[in-house]
Design brief:
globular; 12 strands; homotrimer; alpha+beta
Chain lengths: 361, 361, 361
């Protein structure tokens, strides 16, 4: 993996294992350490598990800082990095209230107009010293001019230690570009309300939330932070999951999220979620973010973001519980269930392949 | 106005060096008053007007503190005062970012099981020194045992300076009791979703929001603070108003709010709002709060709170703007419009009577 | 202690017209005190003790309000008071979730360009009525013009009841001025990361946190509130202390904090902490705040604030526990340990002298 050390951010952390950047890009797993924020009761659900959305918000803040800093590292038009896409992310282990979440970030690839950032989250129990890797996320940012928000600026290139790093990065870049285009085409779908739904149907658990975009939700450019949007999406997905199975639920993974359009301060956003698929022990929830540009703009409501969240249900001892099967009624619901099943089987196959490969090594 | 000074709360106030009101309230250790709270960007809408909900939350926190303190002032079972009702409140003048909101509270009547608190809010521009009264609110609290949340305790009686103060208080007590009963009977109503609504119809602007009740929303008893609920209600009402007229809107008044049932930590609450009436320059929005007791409770969804909010639309110069007329379609919508008109005319008549009385004095 | 009553602050609570208890307390028009703020779960650590940083933030907000109000009390250029320094503060007793924190403030001295504010915090258990003094803090503010943030304005002088009050204030003013100059010279130091540190070494517990400065962190001038900075500093110091001794820890005191430079909205700040000294039952942690002016400024990273926090470790019963000794390795660490010991012994001697004096009286 190409590793471009961001000096300014490389300073702080303590418990960094392995060698610390012994020159260009050594074996230190967490090269750009930062934060360390204590998880508070409001970051967590009633069972004390920190919301996936809280973690996603921290990840995005780290990514925004490192990529904005990089894009301004050469003389030129000042800019702010805007989140364009988050790759699929697994929540590897739950984080609890009182633990410290350490977030590290590094830039792993740059194309002409975009920056790839790898962010890792490690939770640490500062009383016992125990540490666990919680998330490894890949984010794509695009630099927007501070003077003209519709102008995308050029990204200063990074240096790669080895040529393959650049080639692999380019491959990832092309793949995500393709996927973004595809997703954009699927965007017409709408979640319609259902009156008096039966338990375990799609209509029974579907939920939506409106949020008025305030100043603290926004970047210097006056657009919503991607992390704020993801936190709200996780909130809605979590409520859908809990309504369906009426137990303690936690985020297991998030599929790639594409940020199709910016959302301006003062907008009202509607975040809607519906269950698309259940396996024996997991639920897939599709989440849409629609924006109404408020008050002073003639524009109509538009789809800003969409994504799939996967949740699992946990017993009081933290063991995965069986999930009630989703009852599909309409043709569309049945089709979406099959598509969800496809994604589920694909992920499962990929994970098994990885495990076999790891076992062989 | 009946004024009964609560000993405990008489202490911390301000500029009173040396003797505090003739000795009995002596020992005034902390001479300067709590200096209020500076209003931040997050407390306000895009035009810089502080949300009515922010003010309502501050009012309720002050009421909860003074009434809990009073109810525990005599040896006995420890208790927490729970909000039962807020009387109709006018927002007399808008508060802006950077201003300081000063909140004061006093107990004005006690019945056997309830406490009436008068709370006043004054906004202060600390640059110019200008001060304006923003709100005068009356709240009713009921003391609930800390050991058994379903047990209502007795309230220590206050002393009245004059007999009439007690009589007037008793009259207010009886009136609100009657109104609470009436409201409770209206509670079956539900806001149904509308598909593809036309502009300016009820369905076009109706909105709802879900909120997962977290620890910071709750009192020591693990139930939602009334102020948190009111802030969310104002948020939904504001979005309904803005969707209807697509301009900058502010809370003008709130009708009496009755808190029919407690809401427990971990519940998901749905706050729904629909427009019921428009006059030339105001909009009335009905707001419901429904609670789903989460995860570990067998109980069904129930109506916890309901209220009417009145909003006005403001130009950039802060002048009231004409409001598009609400298009009513169903019989129920027409009936609710007429009821809203009744409330509007009644309030108008009452205000004119007060102004005439004031002019005569 | 010099007590100069600031007229403006004696007034502000709301709307209670009519006579106030016989007039002895003079022009105290508004008798009903602001009822403080209830401490919530998010204000506290896992053991329920409110963070020192939460208290420091409340103290600073009170200081900023009273000094801004005073500096604008005469016709002239409007200004905002910026925090320049906080004197050493002891946390006299812990505050718990559910208690009410009452904050009072008064201006005790004015020089030509600065204001000294004394802030007291009293925690109150509203169930039992028990009250404890929690903090007595002294803060220095400087009025900055609202039009030109680099222009320091003149402070309206206050009236002293006795000549000695002015003399004592002047002495305090000169002392803090000297100390500010000295601290500024020490500012080159940086906290470097350590790889694979041993337990109880400095490197093992050192921590840092980055924070993107948003609108709600800032004053009207667009610079970070001193209280926001102090809250983050306390958070980092607390993580360092918990990493070192792996128990429940609380803030015992904060040495004088000098705010050398303003921090602008949009900056990224890095707050770093390292342990410098341990006695049998206390830990001293040095905290640095460094700012990276973001995006649109050519300026380099600069040291904005630095301070020493002292923490103690508490058992489940709230009794102080022995603290593992800090292992110093480098020459610099040994020197800092000796300096910390010097501060510790000096504070101890001062406290003993005060207690002897109090006993004699």
């Amino acid at each position: 993996m190409a590793r471009q050390l961001i000096r300014a951010i490389a300073v702080p952390l303590g418990g960094c294992t392995g060698t610390w950047a012994g020159g260009t890009a050594g074996g230190c797993e967490f090269p750009c350490p930062s934060p360390g924020r204590i998880m508070r009761p409001d970051d967590a659900n009633v069972a004390g598990n920190v919301h996936g959305g809280t973690i996603l918000k921290m990840i995005e803040e780290a990514g925004a800082i490192i990529s904005t800093r990089h894009c301004n590292s050469q003389a030129g038009e000042p800019c702010v990095a805007a989140l364009a896409r988050v790759e699929r992310t697994d929540f590897l282990s739950p984080v609890c209230i009182g633990e410290v979440a350490n977030v590290s970030a590094e830039i792993t690839y740059t194309s002409r107009h975009s920056v790839e950032v790898q962010v890792n989250v490690m939770s640490e129990n500062i009383l016992t010293g125990a540490k666990k890797v919680t998330n490894k996320a890949t984010l794509w940012y695009v630099p927007l001019s501070l003077k003209n928000v519709n102008k995308v600026l050029e990204v200063p290139p990074i240096q790669y230690a080895r040529k393959e790093q650049e080639d692999e990065g380019k491959k990832r870049y092309e793949e995500q570009k393709l996927d973004r285009l595809e997703t954009k085409q699927r965007n017409g779908d709408v979640i319609f309300p259902v009156i008096n739904p039966e338990p375990h149907t799609v209509g029974y658990s579907q939920s939506s939330l409106i949020h008025l975009v305030g100043p603290s939700d926004c970047t210097l450019l006056g657009f919503v932070h991607g992390g704020v949007t993801m936190k709200l999406m996780d909130e809605v997905a979590g409520i859908v999951a809990a309504r369906h199975c009426k137990t303690n639920i936690v985020t297991a993974s998030v599929d790639a999220i594409n940020f199709h359009e910016k959302i301006k301060k003062g907008s009202v956003i509607t975040i809607s979620g519906r269950m698309t698929f259940t396996s024996n022990k997991s639920m897939e929830i599709e989440v849409f973010v629609d924006a109404d540009p408020f008050v002073d703009e003639p524009r109509e409501r538009y789809r800003a973001v969409s994504a799939f969240f996967t949740y699992v249900s946990l017993s009081k001892e933290g063991k995965p519980l069986p999930v009630p099967q989703l009852l599909t009624e309409t043709e569309d619901e049945k089709r979406r269930f099959e598509e969800g099943k496809g994604r589920y089987l694909q992920t499962k196959a990929k994970r098994q392949a990885q495990m076999q490969q790891a076992a062989r090594q």
